[in-house]
Design a protein that fits this description.
It is a single chain. This protein is mainly alpha-helical. The chain folds into two domains: about 35 residues; about 40 residues, no CATH class. The chain is about 60% helix and about 10% strand. The chain contains four helices and two strands; from the N terminus they run ααβααβ. A two-stranded parallel sheet has the order 1-2. It starts with a helix and ends with a strand.
Length: about 80
C-alpha cells in the first residue's frame, strides 16, 4: 500500500463513515484556511461591466450599488460584478 493510500485510510478511520464528498470539502476548507493564514486573504474584485461610459455614469453605478458593495465584505465572496 502506498503512503498516500495509507494516509487516506488513516483519515477514513479517524473520521468514521463520513461520505467522501464531505471529507473532500472539509480538507479543501482546511487548505484554504492554512493558505489564508500563510498568505493573507485572497483579493476581492469589483468588476464594472459598463463598456464605454462617462465618469458620471460610473459614479452613479458605484453610488447606487453601495449596499451590495458593503455586503461584499463576506469572507466567502471574491468577485462582485456591477453593470
Amino acid at each position: 500500500m502506498s503512503a498516500s493510500a495509507a494516509c487516506l485510510d488513516d483519515r477514513m478511520t479517524k473520521f468514521g463513515s463520513i461520505p467522501r464528498e464531505r471529507l473532500h470539502d472539509h480538507f479543501k476548507r482546511l487548505r484554504l484556511q492554512q493558505r489564508s493564514l500563510l498568505h493573507g486573504p485572497p483579493p476581492k474584485i469589483v468588476w464594472l461591466r459598463t463598456g464605454n461610459c462617462t465618469r458620471t455614469h460610473l459614479l452613479h453605478l458605484i453610488v447606487s450599488s453601495e449596499r451590495e458593495i458593503r455586503a461584499f465584505g463576506n469572507p466567502m465572496a471574491s468577485v462582485l460584478v456591477l453593470s
